Amino acid sequence: MRLASFRAAGKERFGIVASSGLVDVSERTSAPDLRTALARGVDALERFADAPADWSFDDVTWLPPVTNPTHVIGVGLNTKSHFEETASLMRRQPGDYPQHPRLFMRSPLSHVGHEAAVLVPATSPCLDYEGEIALVIGRSGRRVAPDRAMDCVAGYACYNDGSVRDFQTHSNQVTAGKNFPASGAFGPWITTRSDVPDPSSLTLETRVNGEVSQRLEPGDLIFSHAELVSYISTVFALQPGDVVLTGSPAGIGALTSTWLRAGDRVEIAVSGVGVLRNRVENEPTGGDDKEVDEHEREREQ
Known about the structure:
This protein has 6 helices and 18 strands. By secondary structure, the chain is an alpha+beta fold. Strands 1, 2, 3, 4, 5, 6, 7, 10, 11, 13 and 16 form an 11-stranded mixed β-sheet that branches.
């Protein structure tokens, strides 16, 4: 199944992605959102999979699949290719991979849904793309052993871990560069584990204006999905709806100062999962925050 959150007829909803449109599960259950539905179990949604679509794709605005995650957890430098391409810049020895995952946090306000605008901050032109495979947690977990870790995962999604590079380097913590509003993207939906029989074989492409900028091939990850979930569950009490970003491959724009610009189109394509598409716009500027707030409301409607 493919599970999505969306806005239609002025209301936030969630449901199942069918070939002809979206089955509105929010009208068929008492769950207020997809995070709650995931906590009750993905299997409970399968009975709606063959229902007729309630909304055409043209009728909806896509939202991040989980609109209210408790945690969005990133993992820095978790691919061999990206580690190697940045080794000299960061004064590391090639092959001297980290002994533990390098964790950082993103705010849910820092990402948008499918087909929404990713914003270049008014305070920096240095917005970079980072295509990643996102794990969406479906079951609470704490101190989960690696051999049981994937039992906590409900499914997979595409993620653009958009990074404002100059702010990212203001200190040895990357948080400042990872949390500008609408700098990243998440979606278009969650493809459940039952539809991804071998997640270790997943591949990824990041395309900017139709040109391939990044490729993630099997075997590039330093820490596997199971290792990440297990380690993260040692630190965090994982909750249904949490999002784990698993690592971006080589090919970032920062190496050539090729920043995203207004008018660009970014696609994150994960084999067997989906394609996340976003346009790039400049963040509105004004004398106070009211103009930005208005833009946010317009973008969500």
